[in-house]
Amino acid sequence: MNVLIETRRARYGLLCVLVAFALNIGFLISSLPIETLPTYPLVRLARYFEPLDANLGAALHFLASTWGRLIWLVVILGWAICGLRAKDIGIRWSQWKEGVVVTLAMWVIIEGVLVGSVLVLKRPLSWNPLWHRLTPAAIVATMVYYFLGVALFEEVFYRGFMVPQFFHAFQERFPKRSQVLAVLTSQLLFALSHIPHYPMPFPMPVGLGILWLSGVVLAWMWLRTGNLFIVVGWHGLMDFPIHLVTSPQNVPEGITFLVGVLLLAGWPFVKKHWLPA
Protein backbone atom coordinates (compact mmCIF):
# COMPACT_ATOMS: atom_id res chain seq x y z
CA MET A 1 0.00 0.00 0.00
CA ASN A 2 1.45 3.34 -1.06
CA VAL A 3 -0.10 5.58 1.57
CA LEU A 4 1.60 8.67 0.18
CA ILE A 5 -0.20 8.52 -3.17
CA GLU A 6 -3.55 8.63 -1.36
CA THR A 7 -2.72 11.88 0.43
CA ARG A 8 -3.16 15.38 -0.95
CA ARG A 9 -0.90 18.37 -0.84
CA ALA A 10 -1.55 20.96 1.87
CA ARG A 11 -3.20 24.21 0.85
CA TYR A 12 0.06 26.14 1.22
CA GLY A 13 2.44 23.28 0.47
CA LEU A 14 5.68 23.04 2.41
CA LEU A 15 5.00 26.39 4.05
CA CYS A 16 2.54 24.56 6.31
CA VAL A 17 5.28 22.14 7.36
CA LEU A 18 7.87 24.83 8.00
CA VAL A 19 5.44 26.99 10.00
CA ALA A 20 4.34 23.96 12.03
CA PHE A 21 7.97 23.00 12.72
CA ALA A 22 8.83 26.56 13.82
CA LEU A 23 5.76 26.71 16.08
CA ASN A 24 6.67 23.38 17.65
CA ILE A 25 10.19 24.61 18.44
CA GLY A 26 8.64 27.77 19.85
CA PHE A 27 6.40 25.74 22.13
CA LEU A 28 9.38 23.68 23.31
CA ILE A 29 11.56 26.68 24.23
CA SER A 30 8.90 29.10 25.44
CA SER A 31 8.20 29.58 29.13
CA LEU A 32 4.68 30.78 28.33
CA PRO A 33 1.93 28.14 28.65
CA ILE A 34 0.53 28.86 25.18
CA GLU A 35 0.64 25.24 24.08
CA THR A 36 -1.65 24.16 26.90
CA LEU A 37 -4.41 26.71 26.22
CA PRO A 38 -6.52 24.08 24.33
CA THR A 39 -6.00 21.58 27.16
CA TYR A 40 -6.44 23.92 30.12
CA PRO A 41 -9.04 21.66 31.84
CA LEU A 42 -6.41 18.89 31.89
CA VAL A 43 -3.90 21.33 33.39
CA ARG A 44 -6.39 22.14 36.16
CA LEU A 45 -6.87 18.42 36.77
CA ALA A 46 -3.10 17.93 36.97
CA ARG A 47 -2.80 20.75 39.52
CA TYR A 48 -5.54 19.19 41.60
CA PHE A 49 -3.77 15.82 41.77
CA GLU A 50 -0.22 17.18 42.29
CA PRO A 51 -0.41 17.33 46.12
CA LEU A 52 -2.22 13.98 46.25
CA ASP A 53 -0.13 11.99 43.75
CA ALA A 54 2.94 13.74 42.35
CA ASN A 55 3.54 11.11 39.66
CA LEU A 56 -0.05 11.30 38.46
CA GLY A 57 0.08 15.09 38.42
CA ALA A 58 3.32 15.08 36.40
CA ALA A 59 1.94 12.61 33.86
CA LEU A 60 -1.18 14.73 33.37
CA HIS A 61 0.91 17.90 32.94
CA PHE A 62 3.04 16.20 30.26
CA LEU A 63 -0.10 14.89 28.57
CA ALA A 64 -1.69 18.36 28.55
CA SER A 65 1.43 19.80 26.91
CA THR A 66 1.62 17.08 24.24
CA TRP A 67 -2.09 17.12 23.41
CA GLY A 68 -1.94 20.91 23.29
CA ARG A 69 0.74 20.78 20.60
CA LEU A 70 -1.28 18.15 18.74
CA ILE A 71 -4.30 20.45 18.69
CA TRP A 72 -2.35 23.56 17.68
CA LEU A 73 -0.19 21.97 14.99
CA VAL A 74 -2.34 19.21 13.54
CA VAL A 75 -5.96 20.18 14.17
CA ILE A 76 -5.77 23.98 13.91
CA LEU A 77 -2.87 24.42 11.46
CA GLY A 78 -2.98 21.14 9.53
CA TRP A 79 -6.74 20.69 9.25
CA ALA A 80 -8.41 24.08 9.70
CA ILE A 81 -5.78 26.24 7.93
CA CYS A 82 -3.90 23.93 5.56
CA GLY A 83 -6.94 21.86 4.56
CA LEU A 84 -5.66 18.38 5.35
CA ARG A 85 -7.98 15.47 6.05
CA ALA A 86 -7.35 12.68 8.55
CA LYS A 87 -6.03 10.31 5.88
CA ASP A 88 -3.69 13.05 4.62
CA ILE A 89 -1.81 12.80 7.93
CA GLY A 90 -1.80 9.01 8.08
CA ILE A 91 -4.94 8.46 10.14
CA ARG A 92 -7.33 5.85 8.80
CA TRP A 93 -9.78 5.13 11.58
CA SER A 94 -10.67 1.68 10.24
CA GLN A 95 -7.11 0.52 11.00
CA TRP A 96 -7.09 1.14 14.75
CA LYS A 97 -8.10 -2.44 15.67
CA GLU A 98 -5.24 -3.89 13.63
CA GLY A 99 -2.91 -1.41 15.30
CA VAL A 100 -4.03 -2.49 18.77
CA VAL A 101 -3.73 -6.20 17.94
CA VAL A 102 -0.20 -5.83 16.55
CA THR A 103 0.88 -3.63 19.48
CA LEU A 104 -0.41 -6.14 22.04
CA ALA A 105 1.32 -8.98 20.19
CA MET A 106 4.62 -7.08 20.22
CA TRP A 107 4.18 -6.32 23.92
CA VAL A 108 3.65 -10.02 24.77
CA ILE A 109 6.74 -11.00 22.76
CA ILE A 110 8.86 -8.23 24.30
CA GLU A 111 7.89 -9.09 27.86
CA GLY A 112 8.44 -12.80 27.20
CA VAL A 113 11.90 -12.16 25.79
CA LEU A 114 12.71 -9.87 28.73
CA VAL A 115 11.82 -12.61 31.21
CA GLY A 116 13.87 -15.08 29.18
CA SER A 117 16.87 -12.74 29.07
CA VAL A 118 16.80 -12.30 32.85
CA LEU A 119 16.73 -16.07 33.32
CA VAL A 120 19.52 -16.65 30.77
CA LEU A 121 21.70 -14.06 32.51
CA LYS A 122 20.94 -15.85 35.81
CA ARG A 123 19.65 -12.71 37.46
CA PRO A 124 16.91 -12.78 40.10
CA LEU A 125 13.45 -12.56 38.56
CA SER A 126 11.53 -9.76 40.26
CA TRP A 127 8.67 -7.41 39.47
CA ASN A 128 9.58 -3.99 38.16
CA PRO A 129 9.66 -1.73 41.26
CA LEU A 130 7.63 0.89 39.41
CA TRP A 131 4.55 -1.32 39.82
CA HIS A 132 4.85 -0.81 43.59
CA ARG A 133 6.09 2.78 43.51
CA LEU A 134 3.32 4.19 41.32
CA THR A 135 -0.38 4.21 42.07
CA PRO A 136 -2.73 2.49 39.57
CA ALA A 137 -3.96 5.91 38.41
CA ALA A 138 -0.37 7.09 37.82
CA ILE A 139 0.42 3.91 35.85
CA VAL A 140 -2.63 4.43 33.61
CA ALA A 141 -1.83 8.12 33.12
CA THR A 142 1.79 7.28 32.29
CA MET A 143 0.65 4.67 29.76
CA VAL A 144 -1.75 7.15 28.15
CA TYR A 145 1.02 9.77 28.03
CA TYR A 146 3.56 7.53 26.30
CA PHE A 147 1.16 5.89 23.82
CA LEU A 148 -1.58 8.46 23.17
CA GLY A 149 0.57 11.47 24.02
CA VAL A 150 4.21 11.35 22.88
CA ALA A 151 3.95 8.47 20.39
CA LEU A 152 0.68 9.66 18.86
CA PHE A 153 1.86 13.25 18.49
CA GLU A 154 5.27 12.42 17.02
CA GLU A 155 3.93 9.83 14.58
CA VAL A 156 1.08 12.00 13.35
CA PHE A 157 3.22 15.15 13.17
CA TYR A 158 6.62 13.91 11.96
CA ARG A 159 5.52 10.91 9.93
CA GLY A 160 1.85 11.33 8.99
CA PHE A 161 1.97 15.10 8.41
CA MET A 162 5.52 15.82 7.25
CA VAL A 163 6.43 12.84 5.07
CA PRO A 164 3.50 13.23 2.60
CA GLN A 165 4.07 16.97 2.21
CA PHE A 166 7.76 16.51 1.41
CA PHE A 167 6.74 13.67 -0.93
CA HIS A 168 4.45 15.97 -2.90
CA ALA A 169 7.13 18.68 -3.00
CA PHE A 170 9.78 16.29 -4.35
CA GLN A 171 7.33 14.56 -6.70
CA GLU A 172 7.53 17.41 -9.21
CA ARG A 173 11.33 17.34 -9.69
CA PHE A 174 12.38 13.89 -8.48
CA PRO A 175 9.39 11.58 -9.12
CA LYS A 176 11.39 8.35 -8.88
CA ARG A 177 13.13 9.26 -5.64
CA SER A 178 10.47 11.43 -4.04
CA GLN A 179 9.52 8.87 -1.37
CA VAL A 180 13.10 8.31 -0.21
CA LEU A 181 13.91 12.02 -0.25
CA ALA A 182 10.71 12.81 1.64
CA VAL A 183 11.58 10.37 4.43
CA LEU A 184 15.22 11.47 4.74
CA THR A 185 14.40 15.19 4.74
CA SER A 186 11.38 15.13 7.04
CA GLN A 187 13.17 13.01 9.63
CA LEU A 188 16.01 15.49 9.73
CA LEU A 189 13.44 17.93 11.15
CA PHE A 190 12.40 15.23 13.63
CA ALA A 191 15.99 14.95 14.85
CA LEU A 192 16.54 18.71 15.01
CA SER A 193 13.38 19.18 17.10
CA HIS A 194 15.12 17.37 19.97
CA ILE A 195 17.84 20.03 20.31
CA PRO A 196 15.93 22.29 22.78
CA HIS A 197 15.65 19.41 25.26
CA TYR A 198 18.40 17.09 24.06
CA PRO A 199 17.66 13.72 25.76
CA MET A 200 20.57 11.42 24.86
CA PRO A 201 23.83 10.55 26.68
CA PHE A 202 25.91 10.86 23.49
CA PRO A 203 27.55 13.96 21.99
CA MET A 204 24.87 15.92 20.18
CA PRO A 205 25.97 15.13 16.59
CA VAL A 206 25.93 11.40 17.37
CA GLY A 207 22.62 11.60 19.20
CA LEU A 208 20.97 13.61 16.43
CA GLY A 209 22.19 11.03 13.92
CA ILE A 210 20.63 8.24 15.98
CA LEU A 211 17.37 10.19 16.26
CA TRP A 212 17.36 10.79 12.51
CA LEU A 213 17.85 7.09 11.80
CA SER A 214 15.12 6.24 14.32
CA GLY A 215 12.75 8.58 12.51
CA VAL A 216 13.65 6.98 9.18
CA VAL A 217 12.91 3.50 10.53
CA LEU A 218 9.59 4.64 12.01
CA ALA A 219 8.63 6.25 8.71
CA TRP A 220 9.64 3.06 6.90
CA MET A 221 7.37 1.03 9.16
CA TRP A 222 4.44 3.29 8.31
CA LEU A 223 5.09 3.09 4.58
CA ARG A 224 5.54 -0.70 4.72
CA THR A 225 2.52 -1.53 6.89
CA GLY A 226 0.29 1.30 5.71
CA ASN A 227 -0.96 1.61 9.29
CA LEU A 228 0.18 4.55 11.42
CA PHE A 229 -1.46 3.04 14.52
CA ILE A 230 1.06 0.19 14.40
CA VAL A 231 3.89 2.74 14.36
CA VAL A 232 2.32 4.58 17.30
CA GLY A 233 2.23 1.29 19.19
CA TRP A 234 5.85 0.41 18.44
CA HIS A 235 7.00 3.93 19.35
CA GLY A 236 5.05 3.79 22.60
CA LEU A 237 6.56 0.42 23.48
CA MET A 238 10.07 1.79 22.92
CA ASP A 239 9.43 4.75 25.25
CA PHE A 240 7.23 3.13 27.91
CA PRO A 241 9.38 2.49 31.02
CA ILE A 242 7.10 0.17 33.00
CA HIS A 243 7.93 -3.41 32.04
CA LEU A 244 6.75 -6.44 33.99
CA VAL A 245 10.12 -7.44 35.42
CA THR A 246 13.37 -5.75 36.34
CA SER A 247 15.91 -6.14 33.53
CA PRO A 248 19.42 -4.88 32.70
CA GLN A 249 19.67 -1.27 31.55
CA ASN A 250 18.91 -0.64 27.85
CA VAL A 251 17.89 -4.26 27.28
CA PRO A 252 14.14 -3.50 26.97
CA GLU A 253 14.77 -0.79 24.37
CA GLY A 254 17.04 -3.09 22.36
CA ILE A 255 14.54 -5.94 22.43
CA THR A 256 11.67 -3.63 21.46
CA PHE A 257 13.64 -2.25 18.53
CA LEU A 258 14.58 -5.76 17.38
CA VAL A 259 10.96 -6.95 17.55
CA GLY A 260 9.89 -3.99 15.44
CA VAL A 261 12.60 -4.64 12.84
CA LEU A 262 11.54 -8.31 12.65
CA LEU A 263 7.95 -7.18 12.14
CA LEU A 264 9.12 -4.94 9.32
CA ALA A 265 11.00 -7.77 7.64
CA GLY A 266 8.14 -10.25 7.97
CA TRP A 267 5.21 -7.88 7.48
CA PRO A 268 3.86 -9.41 4.23
CA PHE A 269 3.73 -12.85 5.88
CA VAL A 270 2.21 -11.47 9.11
CA LYS A 271 -0.41 -9.50 7.20
CA LYS A 272 -1.38 -12.44 5.00
CA HIS A 273 -1.48 -15.26 7.53
CA TRP A 274 -2.05 -13.79 10.98
CA LEU A 275 -4.19 -10.70 10.54
CA PRO A 276 -7.82 -10.76 9.36
CA ALA A 277 -8.66 -8.89 6.20
Q: Would you mind describing this structure in some detail?
A:
By secondary structure, this protein is mostly helical. The chain has a domain at 87-273. Helices cover 69% and strands 0% of the residues. It is built from 10 helices and no strands. The protein has helices spanning 14-29, 40-49, 54-81, 96-120, 130-133, 136-171, 178-192, 204-225, 228-239, 251-273. α1 packs antiparallel against α3 (54-81) and α9 runs antiparallel to α10 (251-273). The two termini are 14 Å apart. The model has no long low-confidence stretch (mean pLDDT 93).
Query: H/E series, N to C?
Result: HHHHHHHHHH
Cα Rg: 19 Å
> What percentage of the residues does DSSP assign to strands (E)?
under 5%
Q: Please tell me the overall pLDDT.
A: 93
Topology, number of strands = 0
User: Count of helical segments?
Assistant: 10
Please give a quick description of this structure.
69% of the residues lie in helices and 0% in strands.
Keyword list:
277 residues, mainly alpha, globular
Fold blueprint:
Elements: H1 14-29, H2 40-49, H3 54-81, H4 96-120, H5 130-133, H6 136-171, H7 178-192, H8 204-225, H9 228-239, H10 251-273
